[in-house]
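Quick one, C-alpha cells below. Sequence please?
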C-alpha cells in the first residue's frame, strides 16, 4: 500500500524549492504562464498514468532510493532546463506538482 504522506512530503519539499527558485530569480509571475500550466498539467498526468497502467513504474517507486532520486532529478532537470529555456520550466514543474496534489486529494476522497 502506498504511503501518501511520504510521497506528498517529497512533493511538497520539491514544490517549496521550486517556488523559492522562482522567487529568488524574480520570476514568480511565470507561474501564470499558460504554457507552464498546460505543460505542467500534461506531464503530470502522463507520469501518473504510468502508475495506473500496467507498467513497472509502480513497483520501482517502492524502492527506497527511487523516491529520493526522483526528487533530486525533478529539481535538477527543472533547474537545468531553466538555464536554457528560462524559469517557465520551473513554473511548469510547479504546476505538475499542483496536479499531483489534486490527484492525491481525489484519490484520498474516494479511498
Amino acid at each position: 500500500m502506498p504511503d501518501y504522506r511520504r510521497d506528498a512530503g517529497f512533493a511538497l519539499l520539491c514544490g517549496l524549492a521550486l517556488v523559492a527558485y522562482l522567487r529568488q530569480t524574480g520570476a514568480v509571475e511565470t507561474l501564470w504562464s499558460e504554457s507552464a500550466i498546460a505543460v505542467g498539467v500534461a506531464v503530470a498526468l502522463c507520469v501518473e498514468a504510468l502508475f495506473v497502467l500496467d507498467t513497472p513504474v509502480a513497483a520501482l517507486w517502492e524502492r527506497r532510493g527511487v523516491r529520493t532520486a526522483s526528487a533530486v532529478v525533478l529539481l535538477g532537470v527543472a533547474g537545468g532546463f531553466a538555464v536554457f529555456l528560462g524559469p517557465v520550466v520551473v513554473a511548469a514543474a510547479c504546476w505538475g506538482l499542483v496536479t499531483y496534489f489534486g490527484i492525491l486529494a481525489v484519490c484520498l476522497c474516494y479511498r
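The two ends are 12 Å apart (CA to CA). DSSP finds five helices and no strands in the chain.
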